[in-house]
Design a protein that fits this description.
- With 742 residues, the chain is mainly beta.
- It folds into four domains: 47-201, Immunoglobulin-like (Sandwich); 216-518, Transglutaminase-like (Coagulation Factor XIII, Chain A, domain 2, Alpha-Beta Complex); 533-643, Sandwich (Immunoglobulin-like), CATH 2.60.40; 648-740, Immunoglobulin-like.
- It has eleven helices and 42 strands.
- The strands form eleven sheets. Strands 1, 3, 5, 6, 9, 10 and 11 form a seven-stranded mixed sheet that branches. Strands 22-19-18-16-25-26 form a six-stranded antiparallel sheet, sandwiched between helices. Strands 28, 30, 31, 32, 34 and 35 form a six-stranded mixed sheet that branches.
- A hairpin with a 2-residue loop joins β41 and β42 (729-740).
- One of its GO terms (molecular function) is metal ion binding.
- Belongs to the transglutaminase superfamily. Transglutaminase family.
- Ca(2+) binds at residues 455, 457, 504, 509.
Length: 742
C-alpha cells in the first residue's frame, strides 16, 4: 500500500538552482535595512566636511585637538558608585538612564568656551540616526542642548570634566563615544576607541524612568541581589533551593544584549521596558525563535543538562552567547524564571521569581479543570486530560504602564515557560497583577491566562453509561492556593497571594469573578447540595525510600449511619501534574456511625515507588468515593513530596578578598543500589565561578568528597551553592553562607 501511494503521489523533485527563489530582501520596501544589532558598528568618519573640498583635507593643526578621553570607568570612581553599577565585572563604563555621569576630555590646549565648539557623540548600531535615537550629540553649552543634556562640571588646565544626563526613554544598550570638534571646514572626530564604549541601563532609582521603584530595600532585593530562592514542592510542604542569578558576572550583560539582537529587535524599541520584557519573554524559550533554553519534561536528558542540575544562570547565558545563539538544553519552569530574572536585574528592571502552588494550565479560558469519574466515583484516568501543576514559577517585573489606565502599573507578570502562544509566539505578559486581582482581564498582555492560573475551579464530573457528564463536586479553592516569592533582604518567604486574589468566598472575590465573566471567562454555575460526609488527607513528611501510611480522615456530619465505597489512587506524577506510574490502588469500604470521625490507613512501601519516582519525587493521591445511602460523591487530593538527602557544603580558610580558600561537597549514598553517572555542580556569586565534576559510580553506603579552591573577588555576604544529579536521584542540593571581609 505504501509503495502504491508513493507511485501515485511521487515526491516532487527539487527545482534547479536557477529556479529557486533568492533570499528575500527589503529593497523596494524600505530605504534602509532594519537596524536590530547592538554588536554591528557603522563607520563614523573622522572628518565630516561642511562643503566640497577639492584639494583634499584642510590643515587642522591650529584648531582644538583631543589628546585623551577618560570615561571614569573604574569601580571606585564616581560614575559606577553613583549609578549602582560598581558590582558589574566589566572593563567598560556602565551607567543608568536619567542620572548624570561624567567624562574627562584632555585637549591639546586650554578650552575656550567662547571660541571652541565640540560635542560628545553617542552612537549605537550600524546605521546611526538622530530621529531613531541611535545618534545623539551632547553639547557642553546650556544654550544648545539635544535630547540628552550636557554641562561643563570643571575645567583644569587642558582637562574638561563634562557631565552628561541621558533621557528617560533612551535606548538601553552599548554605545560608542566620539568627540567631534567644529572647525570652519567641517567636524573633526576622535578615532574609534573601544575602551571608551559605555553601557546604558534602565534606572529604578530615578522617578523619571518607567521602571522607578520607590522603595530602597525592594531595589536592593530586586535589582542588586544576586542570590535567589526558588520555591517548589507542595503548598503545605514547601521546598526551596538557592539560585545564583549572577547578573554582575563577566559576560552576562553582553549575553543579555545579545538575546535582543538574536530576537531581531529594532534598536529603537529597546528603550521601552514593555517591549523589552515582551520580547525577552519569547526569547528565553526556544520554541519558535531559537531562544535561550530548550524545555524538556520527559525525564530523558541524554543530550543536555537536566533542569534539576543547574545552580545558576551564568553558565546558561554564557553558553548561549558563546555559541552565537544555540539553545541550551534543558529547562523547566523554574529555570526559565530564574534565567529571565537574571536578564531583568542585569538590565536594571526590578524583577523577582514567583511560585504559584496548584497552578492551572487553562488553554481555553473557561476557568475549569475537569476531573472525570465513572458512575461509581472511581477516577477515569483515560478521560481526565486537564492538568494542575503542583507549582509553576513565573516572573514579576516592576514598571509604569502608560498604555493602561491609572492604577495598573507596578508589578507585572511575565512568563517565559512555553505554555500557550500570545500574538503567535510562546510568551506571556507583561500582565498587570493589579488587573488580574480585580478581574480587569481585558488589558494587555495575556491577563486572562494568568487569571485562570490562580482562579480556576476543579470540577468533578460523573460519567454516565450513556456518556453524559454530571457535575458532582466543585472545588473553588484548590487552584492558586498560595503564591510565594523571596522576602526582602533575607531568606524568608513572602506570601503575596493577596496581591493576586481576594480571600476565597469574600464579597470582593465574587465581584471580581463577575467582572472576569463580563470579559469572557466562564465558570461552573451548578449549585450542589453539601455532602454530609467529608474526607481529608493530612500532610506527611516522607524521606525517600521510607515506608509510610497515607491516612484518610472521614467525618460523618449526619445523625445517620453512612457507608462509603472508596477508591484510593496513588500515582507518581511530574510536577506538571502529568501521571507517570501508579504505585497504590486500594478500594476500602468505610462504615461510619452517626457523627463519627474515622481514620483509614493505606500503606505505601518504599519498594513499590522507589524505582518509579521521577525527578520531583511527587506522589499524587486522589481519594474518591460514593456514599451508598445518598449517592453523593466525596473527594480529596494530596501531593506527597518525597524528600531527598542533602549535600553537605563546608568552607575553610580565611574569608578575605583574594585569599585562597577551600570548599568541600560531601555526599553519602543512602540507598541499596548504585548511583551511576553522577554530576555535581558548584558556584558562588563574587567568589567562585561555576565548576563541574562527574563520578561514574557511588556504591551503596559509600561517601564522596569533592574539594575545590577559590579566591573571593569582592567583599560581602554570599553563598556557595551545590547540586548533585543522576538518573536515579534528582533534586539534591546543598549550600553554605559566608561573609567575605575586605
Amino acid at each position: 500500500m505504501a509503495d502504491q501511494e508513493a507511485r501515485e503521489n511521487p515526491t516532487p523533485a527539487a527545482p534547479p538552482a536557477a529556479a529557486r527563489p533568492k533570499r528575500v530582501s527589503h529593497r523596494g520596501r524600505t530605504a534602509g535595512a532594519k537596524v536590530s544589532s547592538n554588536q554591528q558598528e557603522g563607520k563614523v568618519e573622522e572628518f565630516e566636511p561642511f562643503m566640497l573640498l577639492p584639494r583634499g583635507p584642510p590643515p587642522l593643526k591650529e584648531f582644538l585637538d583631543i589628546w585623551d578621553v577618560d570615561v571614569l570607568k573604574r569601580p571606585q570612581e564616581i560614575n559606577k558608585q553613583g549609578h549602582h553599577t560598581h558590582l558589574y565585572s566589566s572593563d567598560f563604563l556602565i551607567v543608568r538612564r536619567t542620572l548624570e555621569f561624567q567624562i574627562k576630555i584632555t585637549f591639546d590646549r586650554p578650552y575656550k568656551p567662547a571660541e571652541d565648539k565640540f560635542a560628545v557623540e553617542f552612537v549605537i548600531g550600524p546605521s546611526p540616526q538622530y530621529s531613531k535615537g541611535t545618534y545623539i550629540p551632547v553639547f557642553p553649552s546650556e544654550e544648545r542642548q539635544s535630547v540628552w543634556r550636557g554641562r561643563i562640571v570643571e575645567t583644569s588646565d587642558n582637562v574638561v570634566t563634562m557631565g552628561i544626563t541621558t533621557s528617560p526613554e533612551c535606548i538601553v544598550g552599548k554605545y560608542m563615544i566620539y568627540i567631534g570638534v567644529v572647525t570652519p571646514y567641517g567636524i573633526r572626530r576622535t578615532r574609534r576607541d573601544p575602551s571608551t564604549d559605555i553601557y546604558i541601563l534602565f534606572n529604578p532609582w530615578s522617578p523619571a524612568d518607567p521602571v522607578f521603584l520607590d522603595d530602597e530595600e525592594e531595589r536592593e532585593e530586586c535589582v542588586m541581589n544576586e542570590l535567589g530562592i526558588i520555591y517548589h514542592g507542595a503548598y503545605d510542604d514547601v521546598s526551596e533551593r538557592a539560585w545564583n542569578y549572577g547578573q554582575f558576572e563577566f559576560g552576562v550583560l553582553d549575553a543579555c544584549l545579545f538575546i535582543m539582537d538574536k530576537a531581531d529587535m529594532p534598536l529603537s524599541n529597546r528603550g521601552d521596558v514593555i517591549k523589552v520584557t515582551r520580547v525577552a519573554s519569547a526569547m528565553l524559550n526556544s520554541r519558535d525563535d531559537d531562544g535561550v533554553l530548550v524545555g524538556n519534561w520527559s525525564g530523558d536528558y541524554t543530550y543536555g543538562v537536566p533542569p534539576t542540575s543547574w545552580t545558576g544562570s551564568v553558565e546558561i547565558l554564557l553558553d548561549y552567547a558563546g555559541s552565537r545563539g544555540t539553545p541550551v538544553c534543558y529547562a523547566q519552569c523554574w529555570v526559565y524564571a530564574a534565567v529571565f530574572n537574571t536578564f531583568l536585574r542585569c538590565l536594571g528592571i526590578p524583577g523577582r521569581v514567583v511560585t504559584n502552588f496548584f497552578s492551572a494550565h487553562d488553554n481555553d479560558g473557561n476557568l475549569k479543570m475537569d476531573i472525570i469519574l465513572d458512575e461509581n466515583g472511581k477516577l477515569d484516568r483515560n478521560r481526565t486530560k486537564d492538568s494542575i501543576w503542583n507549582y509553576h514559577c513565573w516572573n514579576e517585573c516592576f514598571m509604569a504602564r502608560s498604555d493602561l489606565p491609572p492604577g495598573f502599573g507596578g508589578w507585572q507578570v511575565v512568563d517565559a515557560t512555553p505554555q500557550e502562544t500570545s500574538d503567535g509566539m510562546f510568551r506571556c505578559g507583561p500582565a498587570s497583577v493589579a488587573a488580574v486581582k480585580h478581574g480587569q482581564i481585558c488589558y494587555p498582555f495575556d491577563a486572562p491566562f494568568v487569571f485562570a492560573e490562580v482562579n480556576s475551579d476543579v470540577i468533578f464530573y460523573r460519567r454516565q453509561k450513556d456518556g453524559t457528564l454530571e457535575v458532582v463536586k466543585v472545588n473553588p479553592t484548590h487552584v492558586g492556593r498560595m503564591v510565594l516569592t523571596k522576602a526582602v533582604l533575607h531568606d524568608g518567604r513572602r506570601d503575596i497571594t493577596d496581591q493576586y486574589k481576594f480571600p476565597e468566598g469574600s464579597p470582593e472575590e465574587r465581584r471580581v469573578l463577575e467582572k472576569a465573566e463580563e470579559f469572557g471567562c466562564q465558570r461552573e454555575k451548578a449549585s450542589l447540595p453539601q455532602s454530609d460526609v467529608e474526607v481529608e488527607i493530612p500532610t506527611l513528611d516522607v524521606r525517600v525510600g521510607d515506608n509510610f501510611d497515607v491516612t484518610l480522615q472521614f467525618k460523618n456530619h449526619s445523625d445517620q449511619r453512612r457507608t462509603a465505597d472508596v477508591y484510593v489512587t496513588g500515582t507518581v506524577v511530574y510536577y506538571t501534574g502529568v501521571p507517570s506510574a501508579e504505585v497504590v490502588f486500594k478500594t476500602p469500604k468505610v462504615k461510619l456511625d452517626p457523627l463519627q470521625n474515622k481514620d483509614e490507613k493505606v500503606l505505601v512501601r518504599g519498594e513499590d515507588y522507589m524505582h518509579k519516582l521521577v525527578e520531583q519525587a511527587n506522589i499524587h493521591f486522589i481519594t474518591t468515593g460514593k456514599i451508598k445511602e445518598t449517592g453523593q460523591i466525596i473527594t480529596a487530593m494530596k501531593v506527597i513530596t518525597i524528600h531527598n538527602p542533602k549535600l553537605i557544603v563546608k568552607v575553610t580558610g580565611s574569608p578575605r578578598v583574594s585569599e585562597e580558600m577551600y570548599v568541600s561537597v560531601e555526599f553519602t549514598n543512602p540507598f541499596k543500589f548504585n548511583l551511576e553517572n553522577v554530576h555535581l555542580r558548584m558556584e558562588g556569586p563574587g567568589i567562585m565561578p561555576f565548576k563541574r565534576k562527574q563520578y561514574s559510580l557511588i556504591a551503596p553506603g559509600t561517601s564522596i568528597t569533592w574539594t575545590e579552591t577559590f579566591s573571593p573577588r569582592r567583599a560581602g555576604s554570599t553563598k556557595l551553592i551545590a547540586s548533585l544529579d543522576c538518573a536515579a536521584l534528582r533534586q539534591v542540593y546543598g549550600e553554605t553562607e559566608l561573609t567575605i571581609q575586605q
